[in-house]
């Protein structure tokens, strides 16, 4: 079994990586199945592979009122398990073993999540009560399990977990309840897993034993369980000690003792149940693959919705920067107030000599206050556009997530990570101001020779910076009607001033560099609002490679099992 054991450990590690955080059609079942597989590996499969010589664990399971605790008491010849008419009786499972087997159960070799309790019945679903009984043979332990159909959900879950940790089942039912659906669902699972099982038909009224036994045997045969030993206990008075008469459980005790005393039989039981459990794990693990694919696909869609919304917003801002839309409205009006358009434009069109000096004179006529108004208008225009498009992208993502795969909780969690509107406005304003400051650096860098420096000084560096911004935003694609004529004309003015100072190649280089820098800053600004959505997806903890890794380890495990069986 050496080839199978390490693959089971790999499977256990892979199961720890599985997450199904999005509430998709297959998610709930996949979460429950993953938890069940982890439990079975931890509670039974891994420890049994490591210790084939450990005592057999016989879990006594069945429906409410079937007499499970009474059977445990009878088999140990002592009222060791609580038995009463109050339901549910068994809340904390009780494991009874021979004193010589204590070392196998004191630690967390099996059922590691259940804390061990000795000397009491235990009071929690997270505890496992331990008791010793010399009347049990070494090599066999009995576990009194909660009802499989308990009205208490925790009882039902624990019962299923304990049955999955068994080497063999003692399945207890009654003449009145043996046809119920829930027990047969578990018996079908036992058949599918090839688990070693014995059926105890308890509390059979006088005169109907043969009929009920025959019907139950027929049902077992229909479910491929005809090989399971079937024991019948009649409805009888209890002994003075409150126990089922010893004669009624002699056959059951003999069958169990035969397994416990024969090491080869004990190993055969362990191998049969273990092999069936591993084969079932492989098949059940494969059912998780579609759910994992569903999660991955949904996450890709959610991430794409973020990427698409913010890419669209970025493209709109860049387009507005590139096509002249920034020069609309107040910016254009402030620029006109600063330099005027009519006379300058006529001089440019007429090609009047010494144009540079004339234009410079007009520029010097603008006041510092007017220059600041233009800068503020540009700053406000870009910042408002940036904030507006970013918040449109945010709203687009939130709508898509809320009505689709993410759900309201995912939206609210992501929204909690976002900066506020005021913080966004402040960040946009700072962005534009910092970008404007880089224009000053560009101008100083290009105007290092004395002539250019003198001309910059003559006009004022802020004025030259404004002219450069006008050139950057001067494309008329985003303007209409009179705006085209005015913006185009005044852009020529700004272009000529800059060319007179730096030369046309330098102006082109400066404009391209500044425009590229603004595009970059816009992208970084939007990343700050897109990242909370991406971070929210990351916190879901979905490992994109886990599905492929699970499929691989399941395939290897199936191959190892075939080799182990000599196929």
TrEMBL record:
Coiled coil: none annotated. SUPFAM superfamilies: P-loop containing nucleoside triphosphate hydrolases (SSF52540). Pfam families: Dynamin_N. InterPro entries: Dynamin_N, P-loop_NTPase. It comes from the Bacteria. Residues 59-177 form the Dynamin N-terminal domain. This is ABC transporter. It comes from Flaviflexus salsibiostraticola.
């Amino acid at each position: 079994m050496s080839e199978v054991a390490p693959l089971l450990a790999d499977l256990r590690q892979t199961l720890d990586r599985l997450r199904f955080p999005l509430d998709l059609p297959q998610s709930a079942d996949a979460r429950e199945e993953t938890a069940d597989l982890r439990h079975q590996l931890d509670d039974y499969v891994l420890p049994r592979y490591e210790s084939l010589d450990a005592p057999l664990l016989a879990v006594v399971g069945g429906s409410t009122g079937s007499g499970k605790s009474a059977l445990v008491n009878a088999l140990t010849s002592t009222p060791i398990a609580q038995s009463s008419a109050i339901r549910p009786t068994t809340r904390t499972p009780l494991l009874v073993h021979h004193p010589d087997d204590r070392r196998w159960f004191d630690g967390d070799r099996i059922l590691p999540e259940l804390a061990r309790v000795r000397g009491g019945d235990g009071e929690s679903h997270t505890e496992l009560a331990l008791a010793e009984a010399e009347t049990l043979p070494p090599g066999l332990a009995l576990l009194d399990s909660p009802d499989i159909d308990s009205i208490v959900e925790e009882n039902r879950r624990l019962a299923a977990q304990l049955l999955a940790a068994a080497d063999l089942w003692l399945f207890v039912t009654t003449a009145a309840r043996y046809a119920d659906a829930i027990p047969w669902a578990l018996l079908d699972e036992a058949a599918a897993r090839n688990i070693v099982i014995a059926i105890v038909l308890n509390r059979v009224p006088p005169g109907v034993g043969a009929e009920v036994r025959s019907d139950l045997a027929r049902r077992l045969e229909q479910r491929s369980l005809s090989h399971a030993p079937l024991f019948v206990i009649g409805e009888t008075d209890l002994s003075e000690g409150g126990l089922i008469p010893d004669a009624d459980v002699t056959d059951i005790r003999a069958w169990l003792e035969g397994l416990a005393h024969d090491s080869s039989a004990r190993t055969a039981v362990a191998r049969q149940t273990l092999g069936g459990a591993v084969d079932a794990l492989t098949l059940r693990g494969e059912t998780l693959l579609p759910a994992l694919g569903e999660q991955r696909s949904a996450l890709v869609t959610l991430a794409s919705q973020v990427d698409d919304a913010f890419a669209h917003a970025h493209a709109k801002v860049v387009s507005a920067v590139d096509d002249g839309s920034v020069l609309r409205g107040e910016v254009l009006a402030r620029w006109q107030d600063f330099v005027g358009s009519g006379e300058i434009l006529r001089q440019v069109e007429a090609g009047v000599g010494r144009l540079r000096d004339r234009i410079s004179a007009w520029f010097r006529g603008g006041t510092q206050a007017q220059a600041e108004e233009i800068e503020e208008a540009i700053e406000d225009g870009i910042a408002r556009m940036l904030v507006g498009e970013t918040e449109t992208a945010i709203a687009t993502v939130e709508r898509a997530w809320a009505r689709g795969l993410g759900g309201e909780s995912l939206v609210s969690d992501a929204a909690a990570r976002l900066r506020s509107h005021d913080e966004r406005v402040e960040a946009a304003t700072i962005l534009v101001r910092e970008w404007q400051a880089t224009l000053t650096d560009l101008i100083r860098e290009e105007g290092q020779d004395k002539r250019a420096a003198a001309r910059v000084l003559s006009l004022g560096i802020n004025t030259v910076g404004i002219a450069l911004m006008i050139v950057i935003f001067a494309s008329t694609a985003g303007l209409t009607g009179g705006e085209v004529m005015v913006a185009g004309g005044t852009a020529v003015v700004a272009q000529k001033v800059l060319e007179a100072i730096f030369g046309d190649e330098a102006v082109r280089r400066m404009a391209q560099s500044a425009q590229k820098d603004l595009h970059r800053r816009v992208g970084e600004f939007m990343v700050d609002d897109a990242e909370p959505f991406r971070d929210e997806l990351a916190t879901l903890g979905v490992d994109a490679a886990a599905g492929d890794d699970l499929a691989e380890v399941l395939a290897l495990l199936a191959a190892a099992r075939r080799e182990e069986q000599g196929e």
